[in-house]
């Protein structure tokens, strides 16, 4: 059930975040990315059932795109219907907590999936005549970075890409901050 299903869509303005998430929903090769992660995802033989690999991937990508820590991502899922909708989490579904989000990130790091995910995304972009550069926000049509570069720098969304390798806390951050631009 989405926000509009409950007649709660009280605004008609499409925000940059909404446009960005809609674009990522359309262009990201989610099936290919899930295929990379699925063999390593928990099976849930005991305890609570695990969240779907695609849901956790989408949450992980939102964390990287918007620079959200695990606790802040948990709160954002609670507070922001747009984030729940992008992650395919309904209104009545349980939401992943910060420890679940942390464990998923550790799973990606443990199996060194970041480089493989970057390769899948680069292959998809190459077929569309686009190119991916870590930390780049120039001519980023999909992220509308040309119009919002000042906003991005004020918010620190791409701050992880500007740190040196020795200070990066997660292996994923090497490939996490994507700028989309047309190749020459």
Spell out the key features of this protein:
184 residues; mainly alpha; two-stranded antiparallel ribbon; 10 helices; 2 strands; 53% helix; disordered C terminus
What does this structure look like?
With 184 residues, this protein is mostly helical. 53% of the residues lie in helices and 5% in strands. The protein contains ten helices and two strands, in the order αααααααβαααβ. The chain has helices at residues 16-27, 30-37, 53-66, 70-79, 81-86, 98-110, 113-127, 145-155, 159-162, 173-176, and strands at 130-134, 178-182. It has a two-stranded antiparallel sheet with strand order 1-2. α2 packs antiparallel against α7 (113-127) and α4 crosses α6. Residues 135-184 have low confidence and may be disordered.
Précis, in short:
The chain is built from 10 helices and 2 strands, in the order H-H-H-H-H-H-H-E-H-H-H-E. It is mainly alpha-helical. Mean pLDDT is 75; it is low at 135-184.
Write the layout of secondary structure elements.
Blueprint: H1 16-27, H2 30-37, H3 53-66, H4 70-79, H5 81-86, H6 98-110, H7 113-127, E1 130-134, H8 145-155, H9 159-162, H10 173-176, E2 178-182
Antiparallel strand pairs: 1-2
Helix pairs in contact: 2-7, 4-6
């Amino acid at each position: 059930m989405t926000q509009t299903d409950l007649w709660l869509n009280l605004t008609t303005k499409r925000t940059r975040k909404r446009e960005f998430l809609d674009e990522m929903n359309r262009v990201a090769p989610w099936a290919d990315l899930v295929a990379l992660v699925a063999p390593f995802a928990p099976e849930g033989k005991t305890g609570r059932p695990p969240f779907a690999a695609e849901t956790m991937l989408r949450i992980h990508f939102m964390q990287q795109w918007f620079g959200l820590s695990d606790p802040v991502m948990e709160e954002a899922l609670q507070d922001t219907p747009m984030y729940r909708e992008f992650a395919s989490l309904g209104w009545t579904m349980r939401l992943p907590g910060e420890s679940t989000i942390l464990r998923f990130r550790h799973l990606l790091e443990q199996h060194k999936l970041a480089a493989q995910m970057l390769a899948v995304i680069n292959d998809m972009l190459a077929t569309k005549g686009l190119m991916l550069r870590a930390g780049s926000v120039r001519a980023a049509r999909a992220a509308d970075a040309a119009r919002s570069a000042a906003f991005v720098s004020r918010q620190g969304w791409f701050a992880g890409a500007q740190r040196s390798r020795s200070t990066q806390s997660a292996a994923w951050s090497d490939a996490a901050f994507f700028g989309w631009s047309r190749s020459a």
